[in-house]
From TrEMBL:
It comes from Pacificitalea manganoxidans. Belongs to the HyuE racemase family. Gene3D superfamilies: 3.40.50.12500. This is Asp/Glu/hydantoin racemase. GO terms for molecular function: amino-acid racemase activity. InterPro entries: Asp/Glu/hydantoin_racemase (IPR015942), Asp/Glu_race (IPR001920), Hydantoin_racemase-like (IPR052186), Iso_Racemase_Enz_sf (IPR053714).
Length: 211
């Protein structure tokens, strides 16, 4: 069986467990680990920059058929790709490309306002800016709360409804911590809701199976 190393760059046990749960239905061997010295939530550009080298080093030192960086900011993704020959997939990249395959236009629910500029840079690099309706933020909640707090879910659903009503044919969840609510939100909105963790899992398996 193919082995994929999945790294959560934050230190939250609950988020890491949620990532493992999201990948379990895909059937491959996903070894999900966390960065124990990392912050509980990747909030700032400094967090993203500080995570890059440790993530790339961990990937370079691990034996696996492929690797997933399970964070929507894709910290260290480009650097890690210079360190190994196996495929390395980022959660944001996978989710945005999947959204573009599913719908003419898509929207993103971000964890916070300050995360949006770095997300948009990545979307522009992927050539998908003209497909983006908008990226709208939650009120700077933690990664863990984004997938577990009922009050946060009500706000998240309201943002999803706004994106749908503005023309989004799919909604991307902008944090790996939101994986647990993807199915419920899709049912509530009536359009595809893309969990970036599951999207990364599907993308890495497609890459490995086509190799």
């Amino acid at each position: 069986m193919m082995r994929v190393l999945v790294i959560n760059p934050n230190s939250s046990v609950a988020v890491t467990d949620g990532i493992a749960d999201a990948l379990a239905p895909l059937g491959a061997q996903f070894d999900v680990v966390r960065q124990e010295g990392g912050p509980e939530t990747i909030r700032t550009d400094e967090h993203v920059a500080e995570a890059a080298e440790p993530l790339a080093a961990r990937i370079a030192g691990a034996q696996a058929d492929g690797y997933i960086i399970a964070c929507f900011s894709d910290p260290g993704l480009d650097l890690a790709r210079t360190r190994v020959s196996q495929p390395v997939v980022g959660a944001q990249e996978a989710a945005v490309l999947e959204a573009c395959a599913l719908a003419d236009r898509f929207g993103i629910i971000a964890l916070s306002e300050r995360a949006i500029p770095r997300h948009l840079k990545r979307i522009e690099a992927l050539g998908c800016m003209d497909r983006l309706v908008a990226e709208l933020p939650l009120l700077d909640v933690s990664a863990e709360a984004s997938g577990r707090d009922p009050e946060v879910y009500r706000h998240l659903r309201a943002i999803g409804e706004t994106l749908r009503d503005r023309g989004a044919g799919a909604v991307v969840l902008g944090c790996a911590g939101m994986a647990q609510i993807a199915a419920q939100l899709q049912n509530d909105l009536g359009i595809p809701v893309i969990d970036p963790v599951a999207a990364a899992g599907r993308r890495i398996l497609a890459r490995l199976n086509s190799a």
